[in-house]
TrEMBL record:
UniProt keyword annotation of Methyltransferase present: yes
A single cellular component GO annotation: cytosol
GO terms for biological process, alphabetical: tRNA N1-guanine methylation
Superkingdom: Bacteria
Domain (tRNA methyltransferase TRMD/TRM10-type): residue spans on this chain: 3-226
PANTHER family: TRNA (GUANINE-N(1)-)-METHYLTRANSFERASE (PTHR46417:SF1)
Protein name: tRNA (guanine-N(1)-)-methyltransferase
Subunit structure: Homodimer.
General function of this protein: Specifically methylates guanosine-37 in various tRNAs.
Residue sites binding S-adenosyl-L-methionine per the record: G114, I134, G135, D136, Y137, V138, L139
Enzyme Commission number, as recorded: 2.1.1.228
Catalytic activity annotation: guanosine(37) in tRNA + S-adenosyl-L-methionine = N(1)-methylguanosine(37) in tRNA + S-adenosyl-L-homocysteine + H(+)
Length: 240
C-alpha cells in the first residue's frame, strides 16, 4: 500500500504546494504516497482560534501552546499501525540520505511543524520520538523542512522513479557524490562530451563514472570520503 505521511501544520497549503509537481506529485497520483495535513487552528477552542501564547519567562516572539497542537497531533497519530513522530527543528539530528532511506522503510510518519519561536517543550517530550534538522540554518517554520523530507522519502517509494536504477545511482546512495552527466549535442560551443561516454565500452564507462564520482568527492567533500567504506576497485582508482 501507499506510504502515509501526516503533517501537523498551521500552513497546510505550503506543504501541499511543495509536493504537487514532478516525481513526488506523480507518486501521490499513482497512490504510492499519501500526504495528509492537520491544522492546529482547527483544534483551537476559543473564538479567536488561538494557537500561540507568550513565552514563560518573557522574551521576544510567541510559543505554540500545547492544547490545539496536542489535539491535532493525536488525530494525526490516530489510525492503524505504529507511527514515528518527528519534529522538524534546527536543534534536531542532521538529515542524511541514510536517514531518509530508514524513514522510507516505515513505520508511518507524523511530522510536526513549528512556527514562531517554537513549540512548548512539554509537548515535544510527551509526543515526539525524534527531532530532525535539514541543515544548520534557520527557516521561518518547519514546513519547508517537512516538504524536503517528504520529497526525499517519496521519490524512494517503489514505482516512483521511472528507472529503478536512478535511485541506486544517486549521490550519497553509495556514500559518494554523483558523477557528471551529458547529453547531445556531443560537440558544441560549450565543449565536447567526454569520448569514453561515446565509446560503447560499458565497463570503461562504469570505471570513468566511478573515478569522476571519487574525484569530485575527494575535491569537494573529503569528509564523505573519510566515512565511506570503499570497494577494492575504488581504492585502486584513487591510488592511480
Ligand atoms: N525549522 C526551522 N529551521 C529548520 C531546519 N534547519 N531544519 C528543520 N526544521 C527547521
Amino acid at each position: 500500500g501507499a506510504m502515509r505521511i501526516d503533517v501537523v501544520t498551521l500552513f497546510p497549503e505550503l506543504i501541499e504546494n511543495c509536493l504537487r509537481s514532478g516525481v513526488v506529485g506523480r507518486a501521490q497520483e499513482r497512490g504510492l504516497l499519501a500526504v495528509r495535513t492537520w491544522n492546529p487552528r482547527d483544534f483551537a477552542t476559543d473564538s479567536h482560534r488561538t494557537v500561540d501564547d507568550r513565552p514563560c519567562g518573557g522574551g521576544p516572539g510567541m510559543v505554540m501552546m500545547i492544547g490545539p497542537l496536542q489535539a491535532a497531533l493525536e488525530r494525526a497519530q490516530d489510525g492503524d499501525g505504529p507511527v514515528r513522530t518527528v519534529y522538524l527543528s534546527p536543534q534536531g539530528v542532521r538529515l542524511t540520505q541514510a536517514k531518509v532511506a530508514q524513514f522510507a522503510r516505515g513505520p508511518r510518519l507524523v511530522l510536526l511543524c513549528g512556527r514562531y519561536e517554537g513549540v512548548d517543550e512539554r509537548l515535544l517530550a510527551h509526543a515526539v520520538d525524534e527531532e530532525v534538522s535539514i541543515g544548520d540554518y534557520v527557516l521561518s517554520g518547519g514546513e519547508l523542512a517537512a516538504a524536503v523530507l517528504i520529497d526525499a522519502i517519496g521519490r524512494l517509494q517503489d514505482g516512483a522513479l521511472n528507472d529503478a536504477q536512478s535511485a541506486e545511482q544517486d549521490s550519497f546512495s553509495d556514500g559518494l557524490l554523483d558523477c557528471p552527466h551529458y547529453t547531445r549535442p556531443v560537440r558544441g560551443a560549450l565543449g565536447d562530451v567526454p569520448p569514453v561516454l561515446l565509446s560503447g565500452d560499458h565497463a570503461a564507462i562504469r570505471r570513468w563514472r566511478r573515478k569522476q564520482a571519487l574525484g569530485r568527492t575527494w575535491l569537494r567533500r573529503p569528509d564523505l570520503l573519510a566515512r565511506t567504506e570503499l570497494d577494492a576497485e575504488s581504492r585502486r582508482l584513487l591510488d592511480e
